[in-house]
């Protein structure tokens, strides 16, 4: 290899290196500019944050009850004085999440087939996806406020709010699962004279069912957490009791209710995680 060739290769390498450095510098400057603009729009104030952190820590500390070893039983009984009532409200929360997830999943199943690009005409895919986007874009609390206004206080508003949001979220996920299905069973059903719904039922659904059940369990976990706060707007469940405790400055009650919610959500997460692991297999679960 001649010296001229080596020099040309080195010059090209240096030019590519300078180009990469320039690109990284441009991306870094854009990222820094975005952070500064976001900080300005969000009114980020480090001094205000430093003043507020001790107050937040003081509020949290107030919720921690005084537990003495010699009177531990009495102290715990006083801390969880409303345990029977709170457990009933927690069960209401679980039922709200279960009913909302079930209704949302049923609606999502119906809309997921026309929303899959490989299974339906383009106009049907576009229309179905826009409807699903609307359902999952509106926050659950906003849906709950609307339904509380329409149907009054109580769990019914919470169930409808969770069902609508779950419909939009699960519909998109189910449609993506359908798009990865093998189309040969669909073609076999259609060539045997089957209708489009029959092709979806017997050609696509058996392939998609394990992943759909996994997504449904994950949505149930999310809805349990969502249902825990829907009571703030009067949609039933343990959230309403938590909101009342916060407004009345009943600090020990706040920590007791939060501890019960945390324990319940943890158990639900563990149980649903094991079910998902059994449904989709160890390899798929690890990859997810």
What does this structure look like?
Residues 90-272 form the ABC transmembrane type-1 domain. It is a multi-pass membrane protein. It comes from Falsiroseomonas algicola. Keywords: Cell membrane, Membrane, Transmembrane, Transmembrane helix, Transport. The protein has 288 residues and is mostly helical. The chain has helices at 3-41, 46-62, 72-79, 83-112, 122-137, 140-151, 155-179, 184-191, 196-230, 238-247, 251-287. The chain contains eleven helices and no strands. The chain is extended and about 85 Å long.
Provide the descriptors you would attach to this structure in a database record:
11 helices; MetI-like fold; transmembrane helix; Phosphonate ABC transporter, permease protein PhnE; mainly alpha; 288 residues; cell membrane; ABC-type phosphonate transporter activity
Structural class assignment? mainly alpha
Beta strand count: 0
Number of domains: 2
CATH architecture of the largest domain: Orthogonal Bundle
- Report the radius of gyration as a whole number of Å: 27 Å
> What is the averaged pLDDT score?
87
N-end to C-end Cα span: 50 Å
Query: What's the number of helices?
Result: 11
Q: Main β-sheet: number of strands, strand sense, barrel status?
A: none
Percent of residues in β-strands: under 5%
Percentage of residues assigned to helices: over 70%
- Gross morphology is extended
